[in-house]
Amino acid sequence: MNKMLSVARDTMPLVPAMRGGDDALLERMRLDDVEAYRTLVERHIDRAYAVAMRVLKNPADAEDVTQEAFVKAWVNRHRWDAGRAKFSTWLYRVIVNRCIDFQRLPKTEWLDEVDEPKADIIDAVTSIHRRRVYGQLEDALHRLPDQQRVAIVLSYYEDMSNLEVAEVMGTTLSAVESLLKRGRQRLREILRTAEKEIRIGLAE
Q1: Are 15 and 53 members of one domain?
Q2: Domain that holds residue 139
C-alpha cells in the first residue's frame, strides 16, 4: 500500500499533516494539491484495506483493489461534487464493487493453509481445536454470497448503520435488512456444520 502514497511523497516535500474535513481536502485536490491527496489517502487507507481484505480474504487482491480506489479518487478529482455524497461512502462503494468484480474471476487460492500441529506439544488437541474454531467465522464469512458478505462486513466489522450500508451498496434499506438476515442465517448454518466436523475430527 505504500506505493499509493509514493506520488505525494515524490512530488512534494513532506509537511505536517493537513487538518480539515474530507470535503476541504477534496476541494484542494480539485486544484491539483497532491499533499491534500496524500492526507486523504493516509486518513482512509487502513479502513479501506480492511474492508477489501474482509471481502476478498487475499492480501494481494485487497491491496490492488484499495490502490485502484484511491487512484480513481485522484483521476476523478476535478469532477468531485462535495455536496452530493460523503467521500467515505463513495470510497466504500468503489471498494465493494471492485471486490465483487474480483470475486467473479476464476480463483483457486481461496482455501486457507493450516499448519500441521507440532507433535511434541502436550495440549495438541486443544491447540488444534482452538485454531480451527478461530478460523471458522472467517471461513464461513467467505462462503457467503457476495452481497450478503459485503453487507455483513460493512455492518458488523465497519460498524455502519443499515442506512449507511444501503448507501455504500447502492440499494434500499429493506434490501440491506434482508441481506443481513439471510447472511446471519447462513453463517449460523455453516458454523453449526463446521462445529460438528471439528468434534468428529477430534473424536477420531
Answers
A1: yes
A2: 124-203
- The amino acid sitting at 29 is M
In a domain, 177, yes or no: yes
Q: Which residue has the higher pLDDT, 102 or 54?
A: 54
pLDDT digits (tens, 9 = 90+) for 91-137: 999 999 988 887 776 543 333 333 433 444 334 444 444 445 446 77
Contacts of 174 (CB under 8 A, 6+ apart): none
| C-alpha to C-alpha distances, 17 to 40, 66, 93, 189, 192, nearest whole angstrom | 10, 21, 26, 47, 48
Residue holding cell 465493494? 96
From 21, 40, 30, select the one nearest 77 (Cα to Cα). Answer: 30
Band of residue 13 on the pLDDT scale cut at 50, 70, 90: very low
- Phi/psi for 54 (5° steps) reads -65, -40
Residue type (1 letter), 148: Q
Q: Which of 103, 134, 156 is the last residue of a domain?
A: 103
Nearest Cα to 145, choosing from 104, 175, 177?
104
Q: Is residue 110 part of a domain?
A: no
- At 100, is the secondary structure helix, strand, or coil? helix
**Residue 53 scores a pLDDT above 80:** yes
What is d(CA 56, CA 97) in angstroms, rounded to the nearest whole number?
A: 12
With b for 16 or more beta-carbon neighbours within 10 A and e for fewer, the 102-127 pattern comes to: bbeeeeeeeeeeeeeeeeeeeeeeee
